[in-house]
Write a structure and sequence with these properties.
The protein is α/β, with parallel strands linked by helices and about 140 residues long. It is about 35% helix and about 20% strand. The protein starts with a strand and ends with a strand.
């Protein structure tokens, strides 16, 4: 497979893999590390999760601003990504506090609800430098 689309689901990560000969494969893998092991030879892996987290600062990610502008009335479906430090919080209140201290903004419940998935992808990208060349954020 050359191209893989990935989205989080209750059992892990749902994927659709496509090749350039009309071949395809679908499935679910338990975690992002398993996803990487199966698909690291792909040309491109598109993941529906924030990638490229800020360490701090009040400037929002440019990709989020651009996506909201493009989506118009549906702009609320793109919520601000958390800062990296918020990934380690034990609960929503702590994550919101950490995010506010680092960025000047609180944290949405939508972000908190997918925090484990965001952490999985961020951890993979930190541990596997080759993944940085292949994984891209998509919505």
């Amino acid at each position: 497979m050359k191209y893989v689309g990935v989205d989080g689901c209750p059992k892990g990560w749902f994927f659709v893999g496509l090749d350039d000969k009309d071949g395809w494969e679908v499935g679910i893998l338990e975690n992002m590390a398993a996803m990487w092991q199966q698909w690291k030879q792909a040309e491109l892996i598109l993941v529906d999760i924030p990638i490229g987290l800020r360490d701090g600062g009040q400037e929002e990610r440019q990709v989020d601003k651009a996506a909201r502008k493009l989506l118009g009335r549906r702009r609320s479906s793109v919520f601000p990504a958390p800062c990296r430090a918020a990934l380690q919080a034990a609960d929503y209140q702590e994550a919101a506090r950490i995010n506010r201290e680092a960025t000047g903004r609180g944290l949405s419940l939508q972000s908190w609800n997918i925090m484990g998935k965001i952490r999985e992808v961020d951890d993979l990208l930190q541990a596997e430098p080759d993944a940085q060349e292949v994984l891209r954020e998509a919505h």
